[in-house]
Design brief:
The complex is a heterodimer of chains A (115) and B (113). With 115 residues, chain A is mainly beta. Chain A contains no helices and eleven strands. Chain B has 113 residues and is mainly beta. Classes of the chains: A mainly beta (115), B mainly beta (113). At the A-B interface, strand 4, strand 5, strand 9 and strand 10 of A face strand 3 and strand 4 of B.
Chain lengths: 115, 113
């Protein structure tokens, strides 16, 4: 079974621009969660989508948004990029319906550099 | 979800067992213990999880104390490829927060030749 895939893997943007990252979950998984990882703050939860609805949200400004499509693929968008948004963005998927112990599986991440 | 405490770093000789401790003294009865690891700049990799019984899979063993206030991840024969940051997380699967993992700083395991 294919794992979680994320595109693009690397991205360079300038301040003020916006960016869209994509995540395709493991087949059959309906929950997609997004995380930001920086050297200073570590791994931080951004938000989770399940059945096209945001189910959980972390403590990030409104510039960070996401959506999920009917096929469970998810995108996250960051508008008006700041230098501090440079990070590794990770997505993880799980069944999301209380099946078993709901293990989350992570993708390889998208490394974003804001100049 | 309960907070976990892990030592920031540990060393282990190649071929020896690596024992990584985790303290979760405020764990509640329905919270599971999960372990993930992250090799430099890659996505975290799921290792193992458990509720109260000891668990073993092809990657590792998980020993949970009887009072469930702490656990130990055991890599039986560490190799250089096991060098990574190891995260211990406790959570309630199937809860409203099921899709939200809270990561601490983890333990950086350095396996040395």
């Amino acid at each position: 079974k294919a794992g979680v895939t994320q595109t693009p893997r690397y991205l360079i943007k300038t301040r003020g621009q916006q960016v869209t990252l994509s995540c395709s979950p493991i087949s059959g998984h309906r929950s997609v969660s997004w995380y930001q990882q920086t050297p200073g703050q570590g791994l931080q939860f951004l938000f989770e989508y399940f059945s096209e609805t945001q189910r959980n949200k972390g403590n990030f400004p409104g510039r960070f948004s996401g959506r999920q499509f009917s096929n469970s693929r998810s995108e996250m968008n960051v508008s008006t990029l700041e230098l501090g948004d440079s990070a590794l963005y990770l997505c993880a998927s799980s069944f999301g319906q209380g099946y078993g112990t709901e293990t989350q599986y992570f993708g390889p991440g998208t490394r974003l550099l804001v100049l | 979800d309960a907070k976990t405490t892990q030592p920031p770093s540990m060393d282990c000789a190649e071929g020896r067992a690596a024992n990584l401790p985790c303290n979760h003294s405020t764990i509640s009865g329905n919270e599971y213990v999960y372990w993930y690891r992250q090799i430099h700049s890659q996505g975290p990799q799921y290792i193992i999880h458990g509720l109260k019984n000891n668990e073993t899979n092809e990657m590792a063993s998980l020993i949970i104390t009887e009072d469930r206030k702490s656990s130990t991840l055991i890599l039986p024969h560490a190799t250089l490829r096991d060098t990574a940051v190891y995260y211990c997380i406790v959570r309630v699967p199937g809860s409203s927060n099921t899709g939200k993992l809270i990561f601490g700083q983890g333990t950086t395991l350095q396996v040395k030749p």
